């Protein structure tokens, strides 16, 4: 059994991301924005201005930006936690029961395990790669554990890894004959057309 190509997958993913962004936007209306976020954003702009006017060194700039970014992430921790929970429910738990997301339903495709029933672990691995869950969970775990500069560097590395995984997977699905990306190979699943 062969996995489907990129077009239906991309369309389903686009629908799913529209739903994700819509729900998270609604949620953000119910989470009051802290005054500290505005202050930190202004501080970030001020530090950028100081760098561009050569008023501070690059080392001083990075130290201050690392601290600001960690503080911003702490201020947005509830939003990030809700995002992670939503991704786990929508992209792991629901497909575990139904073998598809809403976007996949619209495109007439579903998950299929190569050997056996799809497991939660398989879908969790897929979400770590395709939905940014790896980066999000790493940030949530490390934000209160690491000092600001180490957190900033580690978070940046996880962001680069996350983007790289998505790009590599995209090209694998596009160019491999079996249309399988990293998420398919590592989770031992494929995406197939629904039987009519």
Short description:
By secondary structure, the protein is mainly alpha-helical.
Please give a structural write-up.
It contains nine helices and two strands; from the N terminus they run αααααβααααβ. The longest helix is centred in the last third of the chain and has 28 residues, at about 150-175. With about 200 residues, the protein is mostly helical. It has one domain (about 5-195).
Number of strands: 2
Strand order of the largest sheet: 1-2
Q: How does the overall form come out from the CA principal axes? A: elongated
**What is the share of helical residues?**
over 70%
Structural class: mainly alpha
Element string (H = helix, E = strand): HHHHHEHHHHE
> In terms of per-residue confidence, which ranges show pLDDT below 50 for 5 or more consecutive residues?
none
- Major beta sheet, specifics? 2 strands, antiparallel
Number of domains: 1
Query: If you average the pLDDT, what whole number results?
Result: 90
Assembly type: single chain
How many angstroms separate the termini?
Answer: 16 Å
Strand content: 5-15%
Q: Number of helix segments?
A: 9
Q: Radius of gyration in whole Å, from Cα?
A: 20 Å
